[in-house]
Specification:
Order of helices and strands of chain A: HEEHEHEEHHEHHHEHHEEHEEEHHHHE
Number of helices of chain A: 15
Radius of gyration of chain B: 31 Å
Helix content of chain A: 25-40%
Number of strands of chain A: 13
Shape of chain B: elongated
Number of domains of chain A: 2
Distance between the termini of chain B: 74 Å
Distance between the termini of chain A: 101 Å
Radius of gyration of chain A: 26 Å
Structural class of chain B: alpha+beta
Order of helices and strands of chain B: HEEHHHEHEEHEEHHEHEEHHHHHHHEE
Largest interface: A-B, 34 and 31 residues
Structural class of chain A: alpha/beta
Number of helices of chain B: 16
Shape of chain A: globular
Largest sheet of chain B: 5 strands, antiparallel
Strand content of chain B: 5-15%
Oligomer: heterodimer
Number of strands of chain B: 12
Chain lengths: 399, 504
């Protein structure tokens, strides 16, 4: 017993000498990277990292005057190399476990992103819960060089605005690494990544001036979606196309939709529940999909004269709204069929599930089949509530 | 004087011998007097130790009968002088004190005197009368300082074993509550009592306790801690395997569960064996409050145990190895607090823990009068100043404080000391290997705990070995009508406590 005790004591004492040998790293030896941007110039990757300056962000220290983040740049033939080269400019080791957004520059995206993503999937340090965005008409570096107010860390600002807008705004969509890679390797669905735009004065946007101004001169905002063929960017979806995309892939949790009023004008409704089912089938060797969208809405704003207290008006509204959404979706699908010949909606997957045997013939030229396939959409709108008032008070205004 | 010296018929000789044996100690009182009156009288002497004997009893029930009434007459003097057994005469018809015995042996006589009894020697008799006059001053029964309760009896044991046994017997008026007394300590001859309820306590445990206590060979016993150290099962464990309490209700409850109490004269701390790990998380109060409240509070205690044990080490591990586990905003906050802190988190934690231990120890040892001064300085050192000076981070102060507070949640002080000690190796492991190290440490700890035994009972009884019936009063305390059985230790003696169906 005495021997065991002595051995344990010895082991414990010796283990103290090991401190600092293994993967130990103190918090103040880390540069916590919140955003990573990847661009490509010639055959070199340009890596920019937005790292937090803890003292300027922390809750109770007051602002010490500095900016909350700093962006470091480096380059290399591989991302890994560029990452390590960054230690020559950064005083601390880049710690990427808390990454919030990965920004891909447009030029890189057009050349293909698969190679760039390998390091990020392979490295053990990174979690896979960050969002991937594509910088539209800008370099990734430019996106990471904007100071933002309210949410002091710009990468965090991007992250939270993507997160919130995905929840309440139909055109917005988020993509994480796992989801992206899964979509890229799946047959019958091409990938889509959220796009980010930079506005305004890029020089002023990178300084403190940007947060001292009530109307910041430089901004970043999420806008639309980028569509990829294999791993290459080939185009952008505008807001309505993005809305249609999200309805079709059943990614709408809540949003605002417009209804045309019978006597002109329009009213807006809040989608509170939405569910989309895609049924694929193959008829005479030709694929086709039937789409059922079922949405429940609450009237949110009335900007026309209409008698909402009448049940038939509601019924008519529901039908008109359904037509509107249907044509919106059909138009978007048509654009994809004609202009891009690219199935971003996952119709191929639906066909694959429904008719595996036929799929083996269709898969070789799926996008060709997609361009010519028939799509039928059925929308079932239900108006549930009218809000806190009945008819608009505008009609009751007396002279 | 050798130990087996016998008394001689000569009073003068006996007195000289006894005085020499005690080295003419000044608290050894010899009161010489005469029984009877001239011309017929007998010389006698009263011997006692001042302070140990109750002088009131001596005055009223020994001196008074011997020096007044018939004893003042020459007739009685003559009768006593000629009596075949003068001591028996005194005992049977004169002395009013109760508890009288006749001893022939000087050694026994001395021991009796030194325990507070009074000896009566008369000339011409080679024996002595011993009167029970023990009347040691003892502290009055007060609220125990170490194990306080909100609800429950507020009496605590005192330093006198006689008072302590009485406190227990007052709660258990059953003839089966047995007490054996052994004197331990070749010099101190301390009374050590073994108390148990015959028929509930397992005979083998009682026998084991008796044997282990009888094996003790030591010059003195000053506190029950001596006994604890000499009879405990595992000598190299940081965990206590003998429970102690200064609360009569806690000891009584233990006796009712079939445990054996060991009382030591001179200390209010009574030992209880066998002790189980879970026992250290149970307070007598658990049984006085409602069962739901008690169950919740017990969970808090187990939580406090975990925090006190691994609090600083988890903080070290997470902040130096596993930063990815911290929510981003918290990480940024912690990182900013650590800006400029010169030491690694481990050293930082060690500094604060050691500072706190010093403060705690000083708090116990220092004179009461300087207490407030020290605590002000202490709070400043451990709190604000250290942070403002940039030596430690504010988060570390929080961790150390919550750890310190948690370690006091345990009702038993000796378990919280063990945890205090174990915290440091765990911190070392955390600093070297991160969470991996902590878990290695915890696994070793569990292995060790499962290997412990206390007087034949596995230390983790109820959990490992798992007894389903004991679960009613282990992590939770079920309502009393749900606990019909005594906890299972080693014995299956008389397992039923009583049956109380809930009142409808």
């Amino acid at each position: 017993m005495r021997k065991t005790f002595a051995l344990v004591l010895l082991a414990l004492t010796l283990s103290l000498l090991l401190t600092g040998c293994w993967s130990r790293k103190e918090m103040n030896d880390l540069a916590i990277a919140m955003g990573i941007g990847i661009d490509k110039a010639d055959d070199q990757y340009l890596l920019s990292v937005q790292a937090v300056v803890p003292n300027a962000v922390a809750a109770n220290r007051g602002s010490s005057g500095g900016l909350p983040v700093v962006t470091y740049k480096s380059q290399g033939k591989t991302i890994f190399e560029a990452m390590r080269r960054m230690t020559t400019v950064s005083p601390r080791k880049i710690y990427a476990a808390h990454l919030r957004v990965l920004v891909l520059g447009e030029t890189l995206a057009r050349e293909g992103i698969a190679d760039a993503l390998d390091f990020l999937t392979r490295d053990h340090e990174l979690r896979s819960d960050y969002y991937i965005v594509v910088a539209r008409a800008a370099s990734a570096e430019a996106v990471l060089k904007r100071v933002t107010a309210l949410e002091r860390i710009p990468a965090n600002k991007l992250y939270t605005s993507l997160q919130i807008s995905e929840k309440v705004w139909a055109p917005a969509s988020t993509v994480t690494l796992n989801k992206l890679i899964q979509e890229m390797v799946t047959e019958g669905k091409s990938s889509v990544i959220s796009a980010v735009e930079v506005w305004g004065d890029s020089r002023a946007g990178a300084t403190k001036n940007n947060i001292e101004n009530i109307d910041p001169p430089g901004r970043i905002n999420a806008n639309g979606l980028a569509i990829f063929r294999k791993d290459r960017l080939i185009g952008w979806l505008n807001e309505t196309e993005s809305t249609a995309y999200n309805f079709l892939v059943n990614n709408v949790r809540s949003s605002v939709v417009e209804f045309p009023c019978p006597k002109g004008g329009s009213l807006a409704a809040e989608v509170i529940r939405s569910d989309t089912r895609i049924k694929g089938k193959v008829v005479d060797g030709k694929p086709r999909v039937d789409i059922f969208i079922r949405a429940e809405v609450n009237i949110g704003e009335v900007a026309c004269s209409i008698d909402l207290m009448n049940e038939r008006t509601i019924k008519a509204l529901e039908n008109a709204g359904a037509e509107e959404l249907k044509s919106l979706c059909l138009q978007s699908i048509r654009t994809m069929q004609r202009q891009y010949r690219l199935d971003i909606y996952g119709f191929g997957e639906a066909i694959h599930r429904a008719a595996p045997a036929a799929w083996s013939k269709l898969r070789t030229d799926w996008n060709g089949h997609f361009a010519n396939m028939d799509v039928s959409i059925e929308v079932d709108y239900r108006i549930r509530r009218l809000g806190t008032i009945g008819n608009a008070f505008k009609d009751k205004i007396k002279e | 004087m050798n130990a087996n010296a016998t008394l001689a018929p000569s009073l003068r000789h006996n007195l000289d011998m006894l005085k020499n044996a005690l080295g003419h100690s000044t608290d050894f009182i010899v009161r010489s007097f005469r029984i009877g009156d001239a011309p017929a009288f007998v010389s006698a002497a009263l011997l006692y130790t001042e302070g140990l004997a109750d002088s009131k009893i001596i005055d009223e029930f020994i001196m008074e009968p011997l020096m007044s009434g018939i004893c003042r007459s020459a007739d009685f003097g003559a009768r006593l002088a000629n009596h075949r057994d003068p001591l028996a005469l005194l005992k049977d018809s004169v002395l009013t004190v109760n508890g009288l015995s006749v001893v022939p042996d000087a050694g026994v006589l001395l021991e009796a005197i030194l325990s507070g009894d009074t000896a009566i020697l008369i000339d011409g008799s080679d024996r002595a009368l011993i009167a029970a006059t023990k009347g040691v001053e003892h502290r009055s029964i007060a609220e125990p300082a170490s194990q306080t309760v909100i609800r429950g009896p507020l009496e605590g044991f005192v330093e006198s074993i006689r008072v302590n046994t009485a406190l227990i017997r007052r709660k258990i008026k059953d003839p089966r509550l047995w007490l054996e007394t052994i004197q331990i300590g070749t010099v101190t001859r301390t009374d050590v009592g073994i108390m148990y309820i015959n028929g509930i306590a397992d005979d083998s445990i009682v026998r084991e306790v008796r044997q282990r206590i009888e094996r003790i060979d030591i010059d003195g016993i000053l506190e029950s801690g001596y006994i604890e150290e000499l009879i405990q099962d595992e000598k190299w464990s940081p965990f206590p395997t003998i429970f102690n309490s200064e609360r009569p209700d806690a000891i009584t409850a233990g006796l009712l569960e079939g445990r054996v109490a060991i009382l030591v004269d001179g200390t209010p701390f009574v030992l209880l064996v066998p002790a189980l790990f879970v026992q250290y998380f149970q307070s007598p109060e658990d049984y006085y409050h409602r069962w739901d409240v008690s169950s919740l509070i017990r969970m808090i205690r187990y939580m406090g145990f975990l925090i006190a044990l691994v609090g600083p080490s988890v903080y070290i591990a997470v902040t130096t190895f596993h930063q990815e586990m911290i929510p981003t905003n918290l990480l940024i906050n912690l990182a900013s607090q650590r800006e400029g802190v010169p030491f690694p988190a481990f050293i930082e934690a060690l500094l604060m823990e050691v500072t706190f231990e010093i403060l705690r120890e000083a708090g116990i040892r220092m004179p009461r009068a300087v207490g407030s001064a020290i605590s002000i300085v202490g709070t400043l050192v451990i709190g604000q100043a250290a942070v403002e000076a940039g030596i430690v981070s504010a988060a570390m102060v929080i961790v150390v404080s919550i750890t310190a507070i948690s370690s006091f949640v345990m009702p038993s002080y000796n378990m919280s000391i063990s945890i205090r000690i174990l915290r440091f190796p765990l911190m070392g492991l955390a600093a070297s290997f991160g969470l991996f190290g902590i878990f290695i440490g915890l696994i070793l700890l569990v292995l060790h705990l499962c290997s412990l035994k206390s007087f034949g009972a596995p230390y983790m009884t109820s959990i490992a070995p798992f007894y389903a019936s004991n679960q009613k009063d282990t992590l939770f305390r079920l309502p009393r009508w749900g606990i019909a059985k005594r906890p299972r230790l080693l014995n299956r003696n008389n397992p039923t406590r009583g049956r109380n169906p809930p009142q409808t």
